[in-house]
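Reminder to self: tokens first, then the designed residues, so the page reads top to bottom the way the pipeline ran.
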């Protein structure tokens, strides 16, 4: 008996063979594109030469296939979107601090000096910027207030010193500070006041954190040895006060 053959069997077989050939061709193309993508990924990562570290990943999407490659990398030193390195400042040595009780004599002496007395308004932070001096090895400070306490802290800005002038910077709060210089106004030819708004940056070293001092009872004093070239930031913080301005008497100098 002759074998039973479907009238469409031969055509279907031919179609299946063509389809299989198409699938194989597509697979070869995809494999070639995948190899090209891997080459592109490796070439992209080669130019960064970042040390691999567990916990950090970089995700790169293929332009051809839409696949995502996950690679380990140090994002702080090799950012695919740009170089945004975060370098922590070195730890600072602690300052020497002390108090003394000659409040009246101190205020009387500095009260005659216009550049050593100012008012820290309610809600404000005043930052006295004191550059390191080429002939000095240590910065020293003394301050007192009338009637009420004030917050005080010291930071160090690791930046090249272009001038030894002492400047006074005023901001609305302890978080709205630093180098956004807007207006400058000379005061008695010795100090300048600069209004600014920005945040503390990572390059600042903390010598002494800001906290409230009983500067209305005893004169607050301290010193700190230069860690290198830079600018000391003496911060007088009255941002916690909603009603009272604080009259501040201060004396800043360097010793060798």
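Designed residues (256 positions):
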């Amino acid at each position: 008996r002759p074998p039973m053959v479907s009238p469409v069997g031969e055509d279907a077989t031919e179609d299946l063979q063509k389809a299989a050939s198409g699938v194989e061709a597509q697979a070869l193309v995809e494999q070639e594109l995948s190899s090209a993508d891997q080459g592109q990924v490796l070439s992209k990562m080669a130019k960064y030469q970042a040390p691999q570290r567990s916990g950090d990943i970089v995700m790169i999407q293929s332009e051809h296939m839409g696949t995502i490659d996950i690679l380990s990398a140090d994002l702080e030193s090799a950012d695919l979107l740009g170089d945004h390195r975060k370098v922590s400042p070195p730890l600072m040595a602690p300052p020497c601090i002390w108090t003394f009780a000659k409040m009246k004599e101190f205020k009387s002496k500095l009260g005659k000096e216009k550049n050593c007395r100012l008012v820290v308004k309610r809600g404000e932070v005043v930052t006295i910027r004191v550059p390191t001096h080429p002939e000095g090895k240590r910065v020293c400070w003394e301050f007192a207030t009338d009637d009420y306490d004030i917050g005080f802290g010291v930071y160090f800005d690791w930046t090249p010193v272009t001038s030894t002038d002492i400047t006074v910077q005023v901001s609305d709060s302890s978080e709205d500070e630093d180098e956004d210089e807007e207006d400058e106004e000379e005061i008695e030819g010795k100090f300048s006041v600069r209004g600014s708004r920005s945040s503390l940056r990572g390059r600042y070293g903390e010598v002494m954190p800001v906290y409230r001092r009983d500067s209305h009872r005893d004169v607050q004093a301290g010193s700190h040895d230069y860690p290198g070239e830079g600018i000391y930031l003496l911060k007088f913080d009255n941002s916690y006060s909603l009603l009272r301005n604080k009259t501040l008497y201060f004396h800043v100098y360097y010793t060798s």
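The mean pLDDT is 75.
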